[in-house]
Specification:
Blueprint lengths: L7 H17 L4 E2 H8 L3 H14 L2 E3 L5 E4 L2 H30 L2 E8 L2 E8 L14 E3 L4 H8 L3 H8 L15 H14 L2 E4 L6 E9 L5 E10 L8 H18 L8
Antiparallel strand pairs: 1-3, 2-3, 4-5, 4-9, 5-6, 7-8, 8-9
Helix pairs in contact: 2-3, 4-8, 5-7
């Protein structure tokens, strides 16, 4: 057999997916049968199965030599489909806000220890926020990041923030986790988050939460303004638009008790 020219990590990934595909073809299968069908050694197959079992993707019937898939892959697939629905639902609401304000709108979700933009509508002005779908931004400097964390339990928040180096982008940026945690209490109470020139000088953002059918905040929708164009007197109006959008999206995802 020719020696693989693929990097070891890539080869390992291919083996994992080959095992998953093989397990998907029948309800359960033994190590010997699986290793033969994939032309892998029994020891290697067993090692991969045990790792996948530890991660929750594979189940083993007692001490028997039979393995099967769990529902964890289904859960991942369902989550992916939920985001497809989310973007489609959010697009309509964001377009309505765009028509009324001409400002930039973003839809963001939690991505490990940051937020990731999964949809956006650009401002109609020449002076606008520079962003792109797929861009990651810190949780602690963004309005969306704050609404994503505000209703999580403190243990989750502290564990997440423990992996973050707080970098002062502006003089208003939080310097540590405790400062952000103190603000999150206010965010939870008022049901919106604010970035008041914390990410970038001269930029103001507000965000409202979006809930899934279980009442978990899965995303945030935001509006961004250059400070020279922001009218403080209309702040409640802008937040009202975000809350309306957040409520409509959440209700279509199955959540009927939007708090604002």
């Amino acid at each position: 057999m020719e020696k693989s020219t693929q990097p070891e990590a890539v080869s390992s990934v291919l083996k994992v997916f080959n095992i998953l595909q093989a397990l998907g073809k029948q309800k359960e299968i033994g190590v010997s049968e699986l290793s033969q069908s994939l032309m892998m050694s029994k020891a290697t197959t067993y090692r991969f199965l045990q790792t996948m079992k530890m991660l929750g993707y594979v189940a083993q019937e007692g001490e028997a030599d039979k393995y099967s898939l769990t529902l964890k892959l289904f859960e991942l697939g369902a989550k992916s489909l939920e985001y497809v629905d989310l973007i489609e639902l959010a697009d309509k609401e964001m377009k309505e806000i765009s028509e009324q304000t001409d400002e930039a709108l973003h839809l963001g979700a939690l991505d490990d220890d940051a937020i990731i933009y999964i949809h956006k509508i650009d401002s109609n002005y020449n002076l606008r926020m520079q962003s792109r779908v797929g861009r990651r931004n810190p949780l602690y400097t963004t309005a969306i990041g704050k609404v994503l964390l505000a209703e999580r339990d403190e243990e989750f928040v502290r564990e997440t923030l423990s992996r973050i180096d707080f970098v002062k982008s502006t003089e208003r940026t939080h310097e540590n986790a405790q400062q952000l945690i103190d603000e999150l209490k206010v965010v939870k109470e008022q049901h919106y988050g604010e970035d008041n020139e914390e990410q970038e000088p001269g930029l103001r953002c507000f965000a409202a939460p979006i809930y899934d059918r279980f009442g978990t905040v899965i995303a945030g929708v935001s509006i961004s303004f250059p400070t020279i164009r922001f009218d403080e007197k209309r702040m409640s109006y802008y937040i009202g638009l975000l809350h309306k959008a957040g409520r409509n999206i959440s209700e279509q995802l199955g959540y009927k008790n939007y708090p604002a």
